[in-house]
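Lay summary. Proteins are chains of building blocks that fold into shapes, and those shapes determine what they do. In this project we predict the shape from the chain. Here is one chain we studied, written as its sequence of building blocks.
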Amino acid sequence: MQPVTSSHSGLLEGAKPLHETLPGRIALSVAATLFVAACAHVSIPLFFTPVPITLQTFAVILIGMVLGPVAGFSTMVLYLAEGAMGLPVFSPAGPGGMAHLLGPDAGFLFAYPLAAAAAGWIVRAMPRVVSRFSSAILAGIGSSIITFALGAGWLAHLLHLGSTAVWSLAVAPFLAGEAIKITAAAGIFSSMQKWRRS
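And here is the predicted shape, written in a compact code that computers can read:
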């Protein structure tokens, strides 16, 4: 006599993981934008620069590494669209909405899709001989270079600043914090990779 098998178990065995389905990817991207928004609200204004300290770049780097270059880019475009529609996803230090996308830190915001894509691409392009953590550190550095370049460039254009002034306002005050955020994102990502393969 043949053993009785459940048709439901057969369906489950053939089902794709949630993150490989279109609805699952959409839900994952929306959840990722909420994570960036939560990190944006961890905000510390600085009296000497219009750009606040936030955890946004930490979220951008981590999302790019976890989701990959294409999904990371798309997620950050969705995040900017949410902010443009007036949803409270940007740092509370700014005006919010479209006005925030034209303000002093607009260059940083518009860099996020490229920065996430860079993090996702670099961490996947590194040779296998390089450890996951080292690959993630390099991905974070590459992502941050893009963020600082576009953020500082926009601020220089908006406020008509020279290179020394823009370095003091948009780059130097954030380097130590960025190093911590890169290390944290790399540690979380490498731990996730080990957990997936165990």
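What the prediction tells us: The first strand starts at residue 43 and ends at 46.
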